[in-house]
Design brief:
By secondary structure, the protein is α/β, with parallel strands linked by helices. The chain contains twelve helices and nine strands.
Length: about 325
């Protein structure tokens, strides 16, 4: 998504950016956006919720400058904090917008943070959503919940679960048993998420009746995935070629959610992650949205949040990763 702000003259842009672009750097550090100055206009590009928050801060900065009030770094910091804080009324409204009606009267699982709610909202509004964030932020859990909601309401006919089997080299021949037995270890996190919402026996029934399909990434070529809610989990372990192959399987009436953590890439260092690569390739395509969850959205044990923060401090990067876009192996 992108938004454009037009200024009366170039001096207004310079004043907004601050001395030596100090305010611009604050905005870029606070939000996952690109802020581009072109003549007398400003273009903000990035995930929708990040663009909207950044746009709100810049609008408030403009009003302050226009009224003749002073502008300094502390003011910009305060405006950023206000834009990132969800008030109680706004939070209730946001949660109501992402209620999962297919779960009946209780509405099913609810988002625990504003970013999680924005994630669920993005799935409703777009056919393809990429959710990137650290462990414990609910990327897979919420995707499965929304998928079941679509299935229960009859919006889509089936759920397709896919996950790269990096450790087995995608050959799927190293483990005993039939195909399902071979891929079960890799799909375990997805099964665990589904079991939180429906009994094990119901899941088995869904699988037998082809309402839930387990699709190894190695076997996706040649398929057209239609009338389905598709979840590609642990997508940071897809190569660029695998990501392209998977994305081009999307049918005319389908939804796709791709989740992953680009700080936990298990590919050989000679291969770039398809999830890292795709962020730059598809950023400006309508109907495709990128959502980023952070340590603030971790809802597991409190220590998980502290562990993630410790690793972020060590690497000095929120998203981790080295210069070629790869993170340290687990």
């Amino acid at each position: 998504m992108q938004k454009k702000i037009t200024f009366p003259n170039q001096d207004s842009v310079v004043e907004l950016f601050g001395p030596k672009d100090v305010y611009l750097r604050q905005l870029r550090d606070a939000f996952e956006v690109k802020v581009i100055s072109r003549g007398g206009s400003l273009i903000i590009k990035g995930p929708r919720e990040e663009v909207e928050a950044c746009f709100e801060v810049i609008s408030q900065m403009q009003k302050r400058i226009k009224s003749g009030r002073s502008m300094h770094q502390d003011v910009v910091t305060q405006l950023i904090e206000e834009a990132c804080t969800c008030g109680e009324e706004r939070w209730k409204e946001l949660k109501n917008r992402v209620t999962l009606e297919g779960f009946g009267g209780n509405g099913g699982p609810e988002p625990k943070t504003e970013a999680q709610a924005r994630y669920m909202e993005a799935i409703a509004a777009n056919d393809v959503v990429f959710c990137i964030g650290p462990a414990g932020t609910g990327k897979t859990y919420l995707a499965v919940a929304v998928a079941l909601d679509y299935l229960k309401r009859g919006e889509l006919n089936r759920i397709i679960l896919c996950r790269p089997a990096v450790e087995a080299g995608e050959h799927l021949g190293y483990l005993p048993g039939d195909l399902r037995s071979k891929v079960n270890p890799y799909l375990r996190p997805l099964y665990d998420a589904i079991h939180d919402f429906i009994p094990r026996a119901t899941l088995e029934e869904y699988i037998e009746n082809d309402l839930v399909e387990i699709l190894p990434l190695a076997f996706v070529r040649g398929r057209t995935l239609d009338e389905a809610f598709i979840i590609l989990d642990e997508a940071q372990n897809c190569t660029i070629g695998q990501m392209k192959t998977f994305l081009t399987r999307l049918g005319a009436s389908a939804k796709l959610v791709v989740t992953g953590d680009i700080t936990q890439i298990d590919l050989p260092r000679s291969q770039k992650s398809g999830l890292v690569d795709v962020q730059h390739r598809l950023l400006d395509i309508d109907g495709v949205e990128f959502v980023r969850l952070t340590g603030k959205d971790i809802v597991r044990h409190r220590l998980v949040k502290e562990i993630v923060s410790a690793y972020e401090r060590k690497t000095g990067k929120k998203d981790g990763g080295s210069e070629n876009g790869q993170g340290k192996n687990k």
